[in-house]
Specification:
The protein is mainly alpha-helical. Helices cover 82% and strands 0% of the residues. Helix 2 (33-55) packs across helix 4 (73-104), helix 2 runs antiparallel to helix 10 and helix 6 (117-123) runs parallel beside helix 9. It is a multi-pass membrane protein.
Amino acid sequence: MQVVKNYLYNASYQVFILLVPLITTPYLARVLGPTGVGINAYTNSIIQYFILFGSIGVNLYGNRQIAFVRDNKDELTKTFYEIFLMRIMTIILAYAAFLIFLVFIGNYHVYYLAQSLSIIAAAFDISWFFMGVENFKVTVVRNFIVKILTLVSIFTFVKSYSDLYLYIMILSLSLLIGNLTLFPNLKKYIGNLNIGQLHIWHHLKPSLVLFVPQIATQIYLVVNKTMLGSMTSVQAAGYFDQSDKMIKMILAIVTATGTVMLPHVANAFMRGEVEKTKQFLYNSFSFVTAVSVPMMFGIAAVAQKFVPLFFTDKFLAVTPLMMIESVVILLIAWSNALGTQYLLPTNQNAAFTTSVIIGAVVNIIVNIPLILLWGAMGATIATVLSEISVTGYQLYVLRNQVDYKKLFKDTWKYLISGVVMFIVIYFLDGILSNSWLMLIVEVFVGAVIYVFLLMLMKVKIIKDAKLILKR
């Protein structure tokens, strides 16, 4: 039951991170236009590289290490300060590298400087600690308050394309302020700092082991926007970013299980409960499949109505991008369950690292010809191909460790239900009027069809849900 609560807290946490972009996107699409949206997407993609290199894998490593020592207050205190101070130092180096980069870059200086506040904010991000101790509630409350203030600020101060700088500043400052508000909650868990006992740099090597897959992950998450902005136009980067933003918002709900299950599985694995860790995998894999399938088919079915309503007709090019990219919802849900929820907590770091490196390499290799041929559409296809390679390799690695029959037990039922739902909703989307009311009707009808079919086919997750609700 605690895992369910933590999942709900973390799902809320992930959704809150994306809440402001979701609510403000229709407004900003109209105010900033494709060019403004594209400049923000392109410059932010560059800044993410500096944040990545400054963070050196701490989010995953810190989460896991805190989970290992959370029952010992002295070790917990020592581990927190060592990892936190190490990250402060590496972020300082990353910001110095950014300033050097700024000297040599020719365009968008003002926007880069506004984005750079996000690098500073990363130094004070201690959400990994609270995830490690499995306290997700505090991050939810933090995000809710900060995001509401951010939302109000955007609608108050961002009125035209000339306010793009202010918009970027507001987003960057919200990250910094939000991260700082977590520190008062630390006193409940950690004791006094003893500098003489700290060994900061002994965390560097194991953190770097997890840093390698994060480099690869970030490459195939961000490089598309960077390459589109450089090879075609910032407008193309903007179109891709809008599609990607919607897909990532949906994925936040699905992949929230990964952050919740990592410390849970790591703790069980440390106690030698190997079979229990496999059962966790079977259950979470079934859950993410059940959730991601209707989301994948649903977003593809309503994209033609959703895009002009949400982004305006200026962004009609986003429609086919969303329909194709919707496939990655299921693929990333699977790779998150296999990688973040099993490979990492069971210390199979090499396999996890290899999978994301393969994904990054595939993405970069196919990106170049596909972007040159089809622009944003090519980048979207490259994203799908890279996710197929990641998930495929992870399944190959686990072929002798898990029972595929148990892993994919009800998958065919989810897919059949999803396909039937897609056919009905796609047909309705073509005949119903283009309005928010009709879109809501389509979503409701789709949800009813999907759940009804799952009940009809008696999938295990429905039985589990009924048991949880009775408690």
